[in-house]
């Protein structure tokens, strides 16, 4: 069983700011909290194995983060509106 991890808040904020500039992937995603049935649009930035969550693209304050240890992230290409119309 993995032990808990200590994270320095100052270092986390520095990494989060760096992720906004040098991110490998970023963009809007819908997020639903455990205590709410509503989905909310948030801005996420992924760098290395940490997924950073912000209220909006220009937000300076980090909302939350998730450490993706042992996870696999793959970018997928969605069809454009034009491609979707051709299929219909």
UniProtKB/TrEMBL annotation:
<dbReference type="InterPro" id="IPR011993">
    <property type="entry name" value="PH-like_dom_sf"/>
</dbReference>
<protein>
    <recommendedName>
        <fullName>PH domain-containing protein</fullName>
    </recommendedName>
</protein>
């Amino acid at each position: 069983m993995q032990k808990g991890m200590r994270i320095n808040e100052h270092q986390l904020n520095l990494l989060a700011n760096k992720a906004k500039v040098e991110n490998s992937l970023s963009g809007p995603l819908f997020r639903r909290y455990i205590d709410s049935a509503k989905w909310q649009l948030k801005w996420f930035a992924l760098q290395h194995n940490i997924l950073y969550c912000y209220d909006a693209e220009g937000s300076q304050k980090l909302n939350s983060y998730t450490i993706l240890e042992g996870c696999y992230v793959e970018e997928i290409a969605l069809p454009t509106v034009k491609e979707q119309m051709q299929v219909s």
